[in-house]
Design goal:
single chain; alpha/beta; six-stranded mixed beta sheet; 11 strands
Length: about 220
């Protein structure tokens, strides 16, 4: 049973108040970006799709960010997705995350995703586990995370928990895993960010891409949790 409740644990983290939940740092209505003296903003593009059972496409609810060695609620932040930053395509939904944080070191642990319909309610966790730095009064692009669900083999980490049995099985979330890549799509993504959010149009956006996805790290994290 080791590791099978990882996705459920992330959901409980959100619902139990063990992390601070934030709206996105800017909306389409914001005309300018105003950061506090000790704050910066990071931009992250995330694309997720289920190619294993394509009728059950996951939607990202929150992206989980923590400080290294997080021990309490103040060390954990969940950033909610919104319609302003959601772009649908044939490859699944791409989310344009705008996250305001105090300057310092952080870890993007991953994203909690759900599929909801009248009969099926399933959940999964998209792992990232990548470190990044927030610099004061700076907007930084972290890259694009692309995640594809495929059938799980052997002891590979599960995309979702096995409970509830029917929902997780029907959606394929319990019997699949994620193939994740982190790439630099600066030109395309920044064009989308600036097109959707006028507050970013006159901002200089630095490029500091997350490290490549480490599947072994994700496997160990899943087994531990």
């Amino acid at each position: 049973m080791k590791g099978i409740f990882a996705a459920v644990c992330i959901g409980l983290l959100l619902l139990s108040g063990c992390a601070t939940v934030h709206e996105s740092g800017i909306t389409k209505d914001d005309k300018t970006l105003s950061l506090n003296a000790d704050e910066g903003m990071v931009l992250l593009s995330i694309q997720v799709s289920n190619r294993y059972k394509s009728d059950y496409q996951p939607q990202i609810i929150v992206v989980n960010v923590e400080t290294p060695n997080a021990a309490s609620k103040k060390d954990r932040d969940n950033f909610k997705t919104d319609l302003d930053g959601s772009i649908s395509s044939g490859d699944g939904t791409r989310y344009l995350m705008r996250m305001r944080l105090k300057e310092g070191q952080y870890i993007a642990q991953g994203a909690f995703c759900v599929y909801n319909s009248i009969f099926v309610h399933a959940n999964c966790f998209l792992p990232i586990h990548a470190e990044f730095e927030v610099k004061a009064n700076t907007v930084t692009y972290l890259g694009r995370v692309s995640a594809v669900m495929r059938e799980r083999k052997g002891d590979e980490f599960r995309a979702g928990s096995v409970i509830p049995l029917i929902d997780q099985s029907v959606s394929g979330f319990s019997s699949s895993t994620f193939d994740v890549t982190i790439d630099n799509h600066y030109d395309e993504d920044i064009k989308a960010f600036k097109s959707n959010f006028q507050a970013l149009r006159n901002e200089t956006i630095t490029n500091d891409i997350l490290s490549p996805f480490d599947r072994e790290k994700a496997q160990l994290w899943w087994e531990k949790h």
